[in-house]
Amino acid sequence: MTTEIESVLVENRVFPPFANLVKDANISGMEGYRALCDEAERSPLEFWGRLARENLVWDKPFATVLDESQAPFYKWFADGEMNVSANCLDRHLNTPTANKTAIIFEADDGQVEHVSYKQLHARVCEFANGIKALGYKAGQRAVIYMPMSVEAVVAMQACARLGIIHSVVFGGFSSKSLHERIVDVGAVLVITADEQVRGGKKIPLKPAVDEALTMGSCEAVSHVIVYRRTGGKVAWQEGRDLWMHDVTAKQPSTCAPVSLSGEHPLFILYTSGSTGKPKGVQHATAGFLLWSLLTMKWTFDAKDSDVYWCTADVGWVTGHTYVAYGPLAAGVTQVVFEGTPTYPDVGRFWDMIERHKVSVFYTAPTAIRSLTKAAEAAPQFHPREYDLSSLRILGSVGEPINPEAWMWYYTHVGREHCPVLDTWWQTETGAHMISPLPGVTPLKPGSCTLPLPGIAAAVVDEAGDDVERGTGGFLVMKRPWPAMVRTIWGDPERFKKSYFPPELKGYYLAGDGAQRDTDGYFWIMGRIDDVLNVSGHRLGTMEVESALVSHELVAEAAVVGRPDATTGEAIVAFVVLKRSLPEGAEAKAIAKQLRDWVSKEIGPIAKPKDIRFGENLPKTRSGKIMRRLLRVVAKGEKVTQDVSTLENPQILDQLSQSV
Ligand code: WT7
To answer: Which of 126, 263, 360, 608 is most buried per CB count within 10 Å?
Structure first.
């Protein structure tokens, strides 16, 4: 841990909540918010117990809200029984929602398909029956490696219906990353597609699965179920490979949901930590769904009339909470989009909002920043050229949103009548933690504002004591909450070490630096560990380093982040080769080779933007790489720090040269 936190900007603009939203909001006015916070403060367990009873459909009511006996392995609603899929689909069947559109799917090429709640329920049941017929059952693990599609949601929901624990792997990850996850999670089933389509291009998926399964230790996988998206040619292993449409064919369109303990693992999602191997963040049935649904109602103020669109891929946690589960439990109509924001043109998002009359829109700062640039270059695709009057709420997630991007989003997309909700949360927190509420919170561009009711967020020092307002420190949660990570799959020790370090009084350590201003607003200042945030995607520096050093030319590598106007952070890699220092065209060629290598090892998102070669890395006399200096060099700044402890100061000049 380091307290080396960069200074936070000063932002004085305040935007009070809009009267129309305050009037109709699910949580109305600061009094409404305070009342809930006070209730949670007085008795957290009664608060969470009440909400769980009122918002979830239970097969067997719980008697115990929270079991702290094994803390920090907290158990929520463990003696209650329910099913997540039943809570997302069956609960709507005998209501007017049954015939309402659950998903408006828009394909990359613009084709649109509407699926009602009733139809989605039937498709989930048919697929669940299909995998049940193959012998799969509760507690087993399935890896899902699919494009954004109705079928991906069906696959996740079908697993949840049977208690099969899914682990979705983002379609942009390489076969090697996929293999690592299949093995770590102990998958018995893989669900994929022949190809995915993005930006007018077909990108194969099935070959990556085929390759991953030849890499060893995957004997437990007995089937690969393939959704036929494009009809592209795929290799086929008889007996192992099955088409999704064959698995569902002739299956009945009802399937009894399996009653599961509130603590039954719902999914495992891999994310980066500060050491080499990605961590399998495990979430549990009841707590995860409760918080997904409540934050839909509270943060997004979900209403029956909403058309909601979260642009995240189901490969990330945002696509779990706010595509596959939360919106369905809330019974809203949601847009699921296969493609990219820039195809066929950079107005795609605005055009879709106009055509589908989207009212709640949730995306990432990196998308906002790149669309800002794009709209300047191509004014005909500027959001002002579209009818965006259906919008009432805008959301942002994944990284700090800088005030410029916030203002552009607010002014040009929201036309100054939609709040911009900067939602802070993590894979580990399951759902929103610190966020404005549309009918409550005065907004300050760049701040995620205040904790949601029930969330005991605080900023503390190394001893776990609260720091004064205006002082930076570690962002922690002082009390457990239902949607929290339960463990790291297969590595409970790492769970304890990463999130509950003993010096912090048993608080949950988020891994972000933060500061509160005099109004108590939270300002997130970035990670305190070696985790990078590139376009809202989390990457460990060690992961990228291990990929680099596994290349035959590389002796040593150090990776740091550099602020980037579009992607938030960009990866800069400092590389020592086993051969002499390359120059000119040769250096360029090797850099390209290494970039492609990382892309193959991890995935294109991990490609270093900048590669610098040196004969060595800056090290202390004890041999420790001085990353602090590398961060300065990466930014192109002059090193003003004391370098007297450095073994080899002249190396810094070499490493200042971009290839
Ligand atoms: C990390 C979590 C949350 C779902 C997507 C990312 C950063 C996330 C914000 C925000 C500032 C943010 C943090 C956090 N982050 N949202 N609104 N403001 N930083 O989930 O991949 O688990 O990454 O993303 O650093 O720790 P994730």
So the answer is: 360
ipTM score above 0.90: yes
Model confidence at 9, pLDDT cuts 50, 70, 90, reads low
> Looking at ligand 1, which atom is closest to the CA of residue 401?
18
Q: Where are the alpha helices (DSSP H) in 84-116?
A: 84-85, 91-93
Instruction: Look up tokens 């930014």; give the residue.
Output: 635
Q: Does 319 belong to an annotated binding site?
A: no
Tell how far the Cα of 427 is from the centroid of ligand 1, in angstroms: 8
Cα-Cα-Cα-Cα dihedral of 648, 652, 654, 657, to 10°?
Answer: 170
Cβ-proximal residues to 312 (8 Å cutoff; 6+ apart), any chain: 318, 319, 322, 323, 362, 363, 364, 397
d(CA 245, CA 248): 5
Q: Could you give the CA distance from residue 288 to residue 76 in angstroms, rounded to a whole number? A: 10
DSSP class of residue 324 equals I
State which ligand 1 atom lies nearest to the alpha carbon of 424: 17
CATH topology classification for 531-655? GMP Synthetase; Chain A, domain 3 (3.30.300)
Residue 336 alpha carbon to ligand 1 centre in Å? 22
Q: Is 264 annotated as a binding residue?
A: no
For residue 635, what are the contacts with CB-CB under 8 A and spacing of at least 6? 562, 563
What is the β-pairing status of strands 360-363 and 307-310?
Answer: parallel
Question: What's the rounded mean pLDDT across residues 76-84?
Answer: 99
Distance from Cα 426 to the centre of ligand 1, integer Å:
5
- Global pTM? 0.95
- Of 404, 386, 390, give the one whose Cα is nearest residue 361: 390
**What is the Cα 42 distance to its own chain's centre?**
32
How large is the greatest C-alpha to C-alpha distance in the chain, in angstroms? 74
Give the DSSP H or E segment for 595: helix 584-601
